[in-house]
């Protein structure tokens, strides 16, 4: 007589086999969760990259702003009340016209005793098309018109630039109509620049009392 009895362990093995694997719904849910996590991870990664780029750009801006500020500060401290001779035309010690600032300055050294002039003429000129602020330097206060200056870039990516003299009010031109002395220095200088949508404002004192005392 044949025994058709099913042993318990055989039934358990069959149930486990039936429950192994994922259903279609479970697979779709898993894919959806993975997609959401991947999207969130990509957004976080993209955000971190953008923050890193912004920080690098910010550091670059601060670097060039610091260098430009220090250069302008040195120039303003060395401004002198001495006129310049440009090809026979006398120029005031400080001239501001159409957002171009030109001035006489001291501070030139001659360590090799080559007879270099202790004074020079400096000009700040803004190029709107290039978005650059240039510093032009002539090696002597007395020069011919054909002399080419030594040019360097103070600032780049300058979207807006404005320079005024303070005496004590803000003036767009110097010498002013009330100024008869070509050697007179204004009381101060105000510079506004906008770089990458951020505006900066600098104010410098132009009254070099040390030079005036030595010249008296």
UniProtKB/TrEMBL annotation:
The chain crosses the membrane at residues 20-45. It is a single-pass membrane protein. The keyword Membrane applies. It holds the Pfam family T2SSJ. It is found in: Cell inner membrane. GO terms for cellular component: plasma membrane; type II protein secretion system complex. The keyword DNA-binding does not apply. InterPro entries: N_methyl_site, Pilin-like, T2SS_protein-GspJ, T2SS_protein_J. This is Type II secretion system protein J. It comes from Acinetobacter rongchengensis.
């Amino acid at each position: 007589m044949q025994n058709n009895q099913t042993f318990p362990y055989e039934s358990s093995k069959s149930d486990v086999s039936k429950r192994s694997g994922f259903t279609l719904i479970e697979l779709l849910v898993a894919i959806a969760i993975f997609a959401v996590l991947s999207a969130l991870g990509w957004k976080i990664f993209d955000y971190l990259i953008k923050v890193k780029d912004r920080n690098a750009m910010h550091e670059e801006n601060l670097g060039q702003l610091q260098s430009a500020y220090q250069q302008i500060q040195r120039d303003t401290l060395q401004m002198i009340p001495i006129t310049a001779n440009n090809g026979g035309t006398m120029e005031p010690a400080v001239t501001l016209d159409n957002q171009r600032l030109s001035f006489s300055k001291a501070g030139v050294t001659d360590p090799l005793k080559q007879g270099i002039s202790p004074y020079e003429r400096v000009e700040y000129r803004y190029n709107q098309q290039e978005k650059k602020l240039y510093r032009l330097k002539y090696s002597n206060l007395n020069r011919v018109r054909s002399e080419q200056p030594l040019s360097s870039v103070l600032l780049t990516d300058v979207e807006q630039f404005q320079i005024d003299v303070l005496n004590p009010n803000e003036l767009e031109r110097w010498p002013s109509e009330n100024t008869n002395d070509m050697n007179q220095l204004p009381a101060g200088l105000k510079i506004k620049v906008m770089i990458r949508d951020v505006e900066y404002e600098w104010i410098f004192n132009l009254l070099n009392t040390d030079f005036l005392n030595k010249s008296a």
